[in-house]
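Hey L., structure's done. Input below.
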Amino acid sequence: MGKLWIFDFDGTLVDSEVAIKHCYLKVTKKLLPERINFVKNILIGPTLEETAQSILTNKNLHLKDLFIKEFQSQYDSEIVLKTPIYSNVNDVLQKLKNNGDSLSVLTNKRALPTHKLINHYKWDNFFDWVACMDEYPDLKNKSELLIKQNIPKKNYSKILLVGDTIGDGITAEKNEIDFIKVNYGYGREQDWQSINIFKSINKFDELLLI
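Output:
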């Protein structure tokens, strides 16, 4: 009986910060240039809608649909493929799969760019399922997204959620599974004191020791 590994995407498997932030900066410069300095310090990980709202503030929410449309047009067409993967991710995913483990993805990232990158890096055969928040517009957060997958826990020796933000830790706790925090991701400045962390890793290949 193998393990089930549930991976966050941005900040865990792929280093999307530069590409995403570049796109947010381009759209903000076009629609609301006075918020450029704010965008330079945003956290990569929340949904596009959540980030758009935080950039625009309540004062400018009338621009939200246009902001999202502009972002999707620019990011999905070309910028997304400039996203590099973290060191050793390919080898580790292959070794986990060879061990008889199951691999999956649980992400706030939209489905279109997520699958575009999975296809680009030839990861299609690695993951048994990929769950993206925008595929379930009725859900509020990643915890609900994970519940929606109806995982048969008895089929696995262990279930581990691997992620880089406190949202991932909260998701693991609410679903009563172990959380592995990756220290190289985007949640470095978040307050982790209340998060139950099973293991922390500095490099992706440390997963092979768990």
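Residues 201 and 207 are 7 Å apart (CA to CA). The domain at 3-15+84-209 is CATH 3.40.50.1000 (Rossmann fold).

-- N.
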